[in-house]
Amino acid sequence: MPRAKNAVASRARRKRILKKAKGFWGHRGNVLTTVKHAVDKAGQFAYRDRKVKKRTFRSLWIVRINAAARLNGTTYSKLISAMEVKAIEIDRKVLAEIAVKDPAAFAAVVKAALH
Fold this sequence. Notes:
about 80% helix, mainly alpha, 6 helices, c-terminal domain of poly(a) binding protein
C-alpha cells in the first residue's frame, strides 16, 4: 500500500478501525495490523451469528411449546400437526409466548386443535 500523505484521512481511518476494536484484549485492541484482523473476524462472526440467532430462538420456542403441550397431554409434533389440519395459524414465537404467559389460553388452543 503506498504511503498516504493526507494525515487527516489516515488518522480518521485508523481511529475508525480502533473504535470498532474497543474492549478487545491486548494487542487485538491497540496494534493496528492486529486490530484489522480482529475487527474483520468479528464482523464475520457477527454476520454468521445474526443467522444463528434465528435458529437458536426457533429451537427455544419449540422446547417451550413442547413442555407446555406435554402438560396438556400431547406432544409438540402432534399439536403442530393438528393445528395445521384445523388451519390454526399461530406462529411458534407467539405460541411459545402464550405457553409461558397464559397457560389457560394455551390449553384452549390445544383443545381447539385436538378436538
